[in-house]
Amino acid sequence: MKNIISGIIYAISYFTILPINQGKFDANRQFYKGILIALPLIGLTLGVIASASHIALSYILPSWYSAIIASIIYLIFYGFIHLEAVADTIDGWYASLSKKDIYEVMHEPQIGAIGAIGTFCLILLKVLALTYLFIHMQYIAIIISLILSRLSILFALSFDFHPKSYFTLALKSSVKVSIIFKILFLPIAILNKLILKKLQKQLGFLNGDTLGFNIEFIELILLNIAVIIVS
Q1: CB of 122 within 8 A of CB of 83?
Q2: Of 95, 88, 97, 96, which Cα lies nearest the Cα of 115?
Q3: pLDDT tens digits, one per residue of 161-191
Q4: Per-domain residue ranges for the chain?
Q5: Number of H helices, E strands in the chain
Q6: What percent of the chain has pLDDT over 90?
């Protein structure tokens, strides 16, 4: 139990900018299981923070402006970490078209122009969707989208990953998703499979960056589904 809690604390400190101090830990199977448990909880926490921010800001700012700020607050609170993965994955996708070493391109410290433009477009679409939902006070829809997008990683771990993706492989070895769970979240499982199968075919492998891209893309899809329903 102690190692699971350590994993939860580590995930919060790594995947958000919340002031959580991480002490010593043993990176064993229980620890990585704690990380996976924490991911949907992080979605819940950040969704509540962003929603509370919008409610508070609405008292002093116009609704549309407070909605934009609340959307950006959400991005800030998870440290843009998955957006970095989006940029690397887009760079890798275009590198595959020119026969470059895809893995090396994705692990360069800088991002390419195409990766930057693609990531900007995704951010723009996400902020627009969040802003629309905040204006219409659809806080539950936002929170559910943030939880389910991170929950998708459980289905993603059924795929094979690049042998150098040590962190992802450690997560994969720590969990096995039950059939009942897959049935309960079948739409997310299907979305997950469609996205990752396409990435795997194009890149030739999957790694941590593609998992981050998957989270962001599924989240964008869910937010826009909510927009369509509300409108």
Answers
A1: yes
A2: 88
A3: 988 888 888 888 887 777 888 888 999 999 9
A4: 2-230
A5: 12, 0
A6: 61
